[in-house]
Amino acid sequence: MAPQQLVPQTENIADVYATDDVSAKAVAPEIKARWQNLVSQFVQVYGEKPDFVARSPGRVNIIGEHIDYNLYDVLPTAVSVDVIIAVKVVPTEGSEATVKISNVNPEKFPSREFTIPSDKDIEIDPKKHEWINYFKAGVLGAMKFLRKETPSIKPVSIEVLMDGNVPPGGGISSSAAFVCASALAVMKANDHHVSKQDLLDLAVVSERSVGVYSGGMDQAASVFSERGYLLYTKFFPKFFVEHVPVPEADEEVTFLVAQSFITSNKAETGPRHYNLRVAECTLAAVVLAKLNGVTLEKDNSSLGYSLRNFHEEFIRKQGRLQDPLESQLDTVIQTTKELFPQEQGYTREEIAKFLDITVPELESRFLSSFPVQAERFLLRQRALHCFSEARRVLDFKACLSQAKKLDETRLHYLGKLLNETQESCRVDYDCSCPEVDQICEIARRAGAWGSRLTGAGWGGCTVHMLPKSKVEAVSQAIKDEYYSKKFPDLSQEKLAQAIVISKPSNGSFL
Ligand code: NG1
Ligand code: MG
């Protein structure tokens, strides 16, 4: 796909509304108020108006969980909550560019100041959890990109005020919204008109600098989404997006997002953490390749070897690349079951033996990017989740694309796929938690067609597909049976934000 240009700079912030929607009048009053508040607080903090505002939204993943870093297709969409960042370029005093950064909520997110080195990458300490890390990550990605184009570039100094209303640690990717908006802001401040493709690439690199070896789904959804569509995102053999509408049904199909208020820190490395899953999938890919006698070239997944790449080479060897992807996936599922019989997982020794290398070699080649504490690697379960999830994404997409109208049978079928994803996440990928399971059960009982976790899991958010007429009942049931029992002291404000109806929204813009 030809890279799309981002909407160019506008002199007047009011014009920005017109770029989000065809008519500025369509902008909801609360959105307008938030933008106006950002500008007036900027004037209070820095004494002058900002030059521009960069924005990027959070996302909800409808289906395709934990498979982006295996380079399989996913189906997210941007949500209307977002990060907006007001920026003013100011003269550099001294030899290095400085960033002064504040938040509209300074009690929670205190103001900071730091410099941007012009000759090397900015340092980020992933172990020190600071809110500005994500802005720094955006700076890092943007500067890497700019230096590649102009090695002698001198970054400008900026004053920054940020406002984010994506709930943090909540599975709708506050981090990607923040990183994409920050990278966009830094590119713009340095007078660079970035394409969507470039913004995506550099935001993915940026986010990994904060210590999470993620795939590119969140950043793709944050950058490329279009209002009213789901974003079918392919990573293999190269990145490609397709805007997919949800066909009409007798009753409007609604996606409801409910928080569990259980947070998990993805940068940690325990047995139930993100990076370990990335490592397990990488090991599964290289072992499956070895046992099937196929050679894997490095690919652009986070650790360089993906299950999708194994799949391709394995099917190529069988001369079956013309077969439908669905049946190819059935074949790789079969070989996974045969070659990985052990439910209890595999030790480092066993894996090294498969690969004909020593344990230290195994560790330095595949387990050195971050600390891995596991004794056993559940290669069977992780690979089976990934391949079956890839298949469910294809089935979901096919159902949406083939039907002009979604009848009852199709709606239940789509719901069933979502429920199967949840089951696979719970059992094979071990990335759910009792609270998330419970919310899903409550929602299904109250009328959702399908319910599952969305995002990395171990807490975070859930997504539910339901007819519009059931929104009230499902929301009420989750409130009565989950929030008021589990969190009786939850403030009205938090409760009001806990459940949102996801309206597929626009991606990044200036
Ligand atoms: P969340 O937990 O929403 O940030 C993470 C990854 C995604 C993807 C999902 C699981 C980051 C930035 N994003 O999303 O790339 O792998 O988990 O499908 O870590
Ligand atoms: Mg995130």
TrEMBL record:
Family named by the database record: Belongs to the GHMP kinase family. GalK subfamily.
InterPro entries registered for this protein in UniProt: Galactokinase, Galactokinase_CS, GalKase_N, GHMP_kinase_C_dom, GHMP_kinase_C_sf, GHMP_kinase_N_dom, Mevalonate/galactokinase, Ribosomal_Su5_D2-typ_SF
Name of this chain's protein: Galactokinase
SUPFAM superfamilies attached to this UniProt entry: GHMP Kinase, C-terminal domain, Ribosomal protein S5 domain 2-like
Domain GHMP kinase C-terminal: from-to ranges: 404-483
Entry's Gene Ontology cellular component terms: cytosol
Pfam families documented for this protein: GalKase_gal_bdg, GHMP_kinases_C, GHMP_kinases_N
Domain GHMP kinase N-terminal: 139-225
PROSITE patterns recorded: GALACTOKINASE
Swiss-Prot/TrEMBL GO biological process terms: galactose metabolic process; positive regulation of transcription by galactose; sterol biosynthetic process
An MF annotation (GO) of this entry: galactokinase activity
Domain Galactokinase N-terminal as annotated: residue spans: 41-88
Keywords, ordered alphabetically: ATP-binding, Carbohydrate metabolism, Galactose metabolism, Lipid biosynthesis, Lipid metabolism, Nucleotide-binding, Steroid biosynthesis, Steroid metabolism, Sterol biosynthesis, Sterol metabolism
